[in-house]
Amino acid sequence: MLIVGKKHGIEIDYPVQIGKGFFIAHPYGITINDKVVIGRNCNIHKGVTIGQENRGIRKGTPTIGNNVWIGMNSTIVGSIHIGNDVLIAPNTYLNSDVPDHSIVIGSPAKIISRNNATDCYINNVIGE
User: Fold this and answer.
1) Residue 28's domain spans which residues?
2) For 37-78, how does the pLDDT look when each residue is reduced to its tens digit (9 = 90+)?
3) 47 Cα distance to chain centroid
4) Residues paired with 102 in a beta bridge
5) Is there a domain that residue 39 lies in?
6) CATH no. for residue 50?
């Protein structure tokens, strides 16, 4: 069962765990696997895929922390952990863990440590 459906081309299956403050900007072409876990105050933009890797050492789905901004056309796959306060730049392919307070850019992904990485990026912030 889809939470949001065909009108905007969004696939978010019912079992997915999503924290408060979830915000979708430009809601088109978004796919989120039903086993993904997303923390509080996460922003997702059009063309984002958060999915499952079916084999290998990263078999599974991502766990995404709080205050994460995911840019347009980014792909996040595998049993990885994305920390809190992480900005994932548009068009990034990510299949590895990301520590708190980081900016991730490119394909292959380059991780840059940055305090307050998502300052002024997160919309719809809701406290604990």
Assistant:
1) 6-113
2) 999 999 999 999 999 999 999 999 999 999 999 999 999 999
3) 11
4) 86, 113
5) yes
6) 2.160.10.10
- Dihedral in degrees, nearest 10, Cα atoms 57, 52, 90, 99: -50
Query: What total number of domains does the chain contain?
Result: 1
Peptide bond into 108 cis (omega under 30): yes
Query: Strands 75-77, 93-94: parallel, antiparallel or unpaired by DSSP?
Result: parallel
The burial of 128, by beta-carbon neighbours within 10 Å (0-12 exposed, 13-18 middle, 19 or more buried), is given as exposed
Is 128 among the domain residues? no
Question: Exposed, middle or buried: residue 127 (CB in 10 Å: 0-12, 13-18, 19+)?
Answer: exposed
What mean pLDDT, rounded, does the chain reach? 92
